[in-house]
Amino acid sequence: MKKLSKAYLGLVLMFLYVPIFVLIIFSFNTTKSRTVLSGFTLDWYIRLFKNEVIMTSLMNTILIAVAASIASTILGTTAAIGINSMKKLPRTIVMNITNFPIINPEIVTGVSLMLLFVFFAARMHFEFGFWTLLIAHITFDVPYVILNVMPKFRQMDPFLYEAAQDLGCNPIKAFFKVVLPEIMPGIISGFLMSFTYSLDDFIISYFTCGPNTQTLPITIYSMTRRKVSPEINALSTIIFLIVVIVLIVKNIIERKHSAKIRKEDMA
Question: What is the CA radius of gyration of the chain?
Fold first, then answer.
């Protein structure tokens, strides 16, 4: 039975990752062929970085992802602090409401935000573009930050904050000296998850972007509608590696924090 389960797991992983590895291999192919390897080259990566449309979209994507991640991390952490201080029933209700954007289909969220921006655009005379994209990304990033920070509050000793105040800290100093270091792994995990989701979001960005501000997934979609260029293979390879690095960093941080907790428990 164990061998069968391992074989099944291997088939699933192969189904998921073989296409990605094929894409990575053909990003170094000398020709545009997607079936025959003609040789090794870095020309497609060089052409990629010379493509102004892709580079502009890449800069927009990184800028929006970083800004949205920072803003959502601050808002999500603040919200998690407030939710943690609630009683059990209100906390459960608020957490369920907070999880709606995660459970809700992205197309519903995208259309809803688009209609909201259209409503305000008609009255405040602003256009779809960077700010609408940024607000949309913050909207779907905040719940992921709350989801990462809340478990850290449950793991923390609830009397640490009061103990710090009894020992002479004022409420603000007690928070930064005692509470913040305890929940910091959750904050970092929330930031990295927000950054990852913002980096590759397509559906919500598609409904909230403007004609002059597009993210990388939308640009790739526009390119694939005409003809798939090996530049897209190179670009997809870079995005895949960035996401893998972000996930590795996230796992390292979580493991270090878990090891620290185990040492403190043993002591």
Answer: 23
CA atoms within 13 A on the CB side of 100: 9
Q: Judge contact between 246 and 89, C-beta under 8 A.
A: no
CA distances from 53 to 136, 168, 174 (A): 22, 57, 49
**201-251: per-residue pLDDT in tens?**
888 888 888 878 888 888 888 877 777 677 888 888 888 887 788 778 877
User: In this structure, are residues 144 and 193 in contact, taking their beta carbons and an 8 Å threshold?
Assistant: yes
Q: Is the pTM of this model over 0.70?
A: yes
Residue with tokens 């390119």: 223
Which residues are CB-contacts of 193 (< 8 A; sequence separation ≥ 6)? 144, 145, 148, 250
- In angstroms, the CA 90 to CA 77 distance is 18
Structure tokens at 27: 């990003």
Q: What is the C-alpha separation between 47 and 51, in angstroms, rounded?
A: 6
Residue 144: its H or E element: helix 130-155
Instruction: Profile the chain (267 residues) by mean pLDDT over runs of 10 residues.
Output: 79 84 83 74 85 85 92 92 85 84 86 88 78 90 90 79 76 81 85 86 87 83 74 82 80 75 66
Do you know the residue count of the chain?
267
